[in-house]
Amino acid sequence: MEETPPPGCSKPHLEKLTLGITRILESSPGVTEVTIIEKPPAERHMISSWEQKNNCMLPEDVKNFYLMTNGFHMTWSVKLDEHTIPLGSMAINSISKLTQLNQSSVYSLPNAPTLADLEDDTLEASENQPEKPHFDSRSVIFELDSCNGNGKVCLVYKTGKPALAQDTEIWFLDRALYWHFLTDTFTAYYRLLITHLGLPQWQYAFTSYGISPQAKQWFNMYKPITYNTNLLAEETNSFVNKLDPSRVFKSKNKTLIPKKKGPVQPPGGQKGPSGPPSTSKSSSSPGNPVRK
After folding, report:
1. How does pLDDT run across 219-241, given as a tens digit for each residue?
2. Compositionally biased, Basic residues: which spans (predicted)?
3. Best CA proximity match to 155, nearest among 143, 147, 173, 145
4. What's the confidence (pLDDT) of residue 20?
């Protein structure tokens, strides 16, 4: 069931779940259709069944989340002229869709490559980045969000099976199969998701190459609550426009100002009733310059 909570939503569990972000979005210029797909809580036996099936213990904050709502999906759009454009999307898979990344062959052929075969082991841990996940048995990886095809946010168990709750981290896997560390805990990731307003490609702000120029335009218009100017630092040769939402979405009804017209001189001059053409001082012909 879809719900669009009005300002000052009377459902305390939705207000708690969204951290009050709906009121901020609804008060932003141009934002429309702020929608939450309300989902019932997961039952405890569903969580126990998932843990037994996958031989992994869920962290307590993940369990508490699913006991509040079995997944999360919140979207919002913007209205430009007469068109409504879907923009923000915040999603976390339900526990039934919290599935392990496919480690089978890319193609259903004998000896076809797997994700583990495509892995690049040259980039290991550094001072600023912990050891990255692995596609083989060294890590167990579950998909939290498909990011609308821009990558995958994953719950990663770093020590393989049997997997313990304290060995989890949240990572972002981009479309080129490179890993980028996001947070140590699910709670911290959920706050990032909400405070970045579900803006397109926001996960790429935590990569070395950053978000695309198109996404940067939306970031400039709807700045995340955890806005970091360093993430959006522009190069000196960048030509990204600076957009002002108050100007973009303001009324386009303009007051027409009549243009002043000078005296129109017909070709050949204006003949009087008795014959010769008029030689008015306002004439600007080459033979009769205007004197000031």
Report:
1. 988 888 764 444 444 443 433 44
2. 250-262
3. 143
4. 80
